[in-house]
Design brief:
Layout: H1 6-29, E1 34-44, H2 63-66, E2 69-79, E3 84-105, E4 109-130, E5 137-149, E6 153-160, E7 166-174, E8 178-189, E9 192-201, E10 213-226
Parallel strand pairs: 3-6
Antiparallel strand pairs: 1-2, 1-10, 2-3, 3-4, 4-5, 5-8, 6-7, 8-9, 9-10
């Protein structure tokens, strides 16, 4: 084996160490035609709706309590171009569920059994990055969300005779599912994204009439894998 030329070895090592960071940086900045899998957290703030709507609620649950709190997000983005992408996010949270509602007697009103469980959401987004900052991008997102999946509960209503005695009951399975438009704006740097936005719906099951129901949120996510 021929002896190693120290000078040549150092030159080659210096060349590798000089070029490698630029190669890695180029790979990280290249988003076009790539998938990015991300993990993040979201916090939903107390919903916004007309104060009178709370009195018109048709379900035995607080819309505000059920739709506010922390959320865990797992998603993927596919970049058609360097800045334009389509994203899908699956969310999970542990929140309020009403599993059974029954009327005990006409004079006693209703009695509800409250439990907590896992609620899921599915979100489809179109995203665009605007390079308006020296370091980082302005992010604008719009999409459609399916909220409160796995919120099924059993509702039991008693039927009384004219003397107030229970003679029968009706049992129904219902849920608190609803869909919403989702808009957000934020800041992205490298693989990190900080967003703030709103879920907006006019077709929830909480109220007897259609009314605008909005859920503000803030979120943070990080791209953990690129394919």
């Amino acid at each position: 084996m021929p002896p190693i030329n120290p000078t040549l070895f150092m030159k080659n090592l210096f060349l590798i160490l000089f070029i490698l960071p630029y190669f890695i940086l180029a790979q990280n900045n290249s988003r076009e035609k790539s998938f990015f899998f991300n993990l993040g957290a979201e916090f939903r703030i107390t919903p916004i709706h007309k104060s009178g709507d709370q009195a018109m609620a048709t379900m035995f649950v607080s819309p505000d309590s059920q739709n506010a709190g922390p959320v865990l997000n797992l998603g993927v983005d596919y970049y058609f171009t360097k800045n334009f992408s389509f994203g899908f996010v699956s969310s999970i949270r542990y929140d309020l569920l009403t599993t059974q509602i029954e009327t005990t007697a006409p004079s006693d009103g209703t009695n509800s059994k409250i439990e907590r469980g896992l609620l899921y959401g599915y979100h489809f987004n179109l995203n665009y990055r605007f390079a308006v900052f020296k370091k980082g991008d302005l992010l604008v997102c719009a999409g459609w969300s399916l909220l409160n999946r796995n919120s099924e509960y059993v509702r039991t209503e008693s039927i009384y005779d004219k003397d107030g005695q229970i003679i029968d009951s009706n049992t129904n399975i219902d849920n608190y599912n609803f869909s919403a438009n989702r808009v957000s704006i934020g800041y992205g740097k490298g693989r990190s994204k900080l967003m703030m936005g709103m879920y907006i719906s006019r077709n929830t099951k909480y109220f007897s009439e259609k009314t605008t129901f909005m859920i503000p949120f803030v979120s943070y996510s990080f791209d953990v894998v690129k394919l």
